[in-house]
Amino acid sequence: MPLTGPSHLQRSRAESFGSVAEDYDRYRPSYPAALIDDLVALQPGRVLDIGCGTGKAGRVLVARGLPVLGVEIDPKMAAVARTHGLEVEVAKFEDWDDRGRRFDLITAAQAWHWVDPKIGAPKAAGLLRPGGTVALFWNHFQDRDDPTRSAFDEVYRREAPELFEAGVRERVAHADRPYASNLEASGQFASIEVKDYAYEVTLTSDEWVGMVQTHSDHLALEPSRRAALAGGLRDLIDGMGGSVTVAAGTYTIYARP
User: Contact, 166 vs 2, CB < 8 A?
Assistant: First the structure.
């Protein structure tokens, strides 16, 4: 059964990604150009990427000419990020020694939910130079009731009912993400702005299965059940013509002290 409760109390799940680091790098989606444009427009002189993983976000910023330092808890994920030219220090963010360094932009892509909010918010705020910004963002698929969603739900009901039930709970709570309210409650930020970048994504059956197989709740399944779920999803998408197009978004929080 997948673990429940706040993600930062389940840190072992965050540290499970190293076992699939190469697949994570290959299959996890990048981030929309509109978001990257907005981050670059801030003209940061120095960027810190918290929980940089394999560098999915950091390397895009590096490609746009920004100096980025990544902090990543998993050595295997960090090793992949370095192959993309990203400078990475291996540490848990809450324990990471900043050595007096300060930043104009702090990002956390698909990672902030692993950070203890009572420690992370004040630490991030303290690492900012005057006028700096914290940008936290997560990719997600838009919640909508349609035949495609129902067909995917049926595969999960059959092969991994606990993941289906967790997914329903997540969709119900989708509009009530606690991250912005946690930042506000910390008292560290004078300005908090929430923005959702909407777009569509088309994935083949191999791409979809490869992506979901890198999620921590899927990794927690027994290998035989994970394989059965993968087979069911692949058969479903192949039956739809070999690919599926879904509405997606990148939920983003901009916070400034």
Answer: yes
